[in-house]
Amino acid sequence: MLTCKQVCDNATNYLEGPTTFQDRLSLRAHLLICRDCRRFLKQFRTMVGAVNEPADLPEPSDEEIDALVRKLSSQSADP
Description:
It contains five helices and no strands. The protein is mainly alpha-helical.
């Protein structure tokens, strides 16, 4: 049976990589008895999904970029 540390150390492999039947079985057996690892994998899955989602943000216009550069330049010039 896997330990909690092994589950955490190999979370990416379990969720995204190819694993053997034995690895999947060991993971499921551990998750049946360990609420903390179930919670960890759920949070990890959520984090990976959020990071991999493309942002639907509009590209800034040239005017907006110029205004930001001017603002940052004026702030760095002030001692």
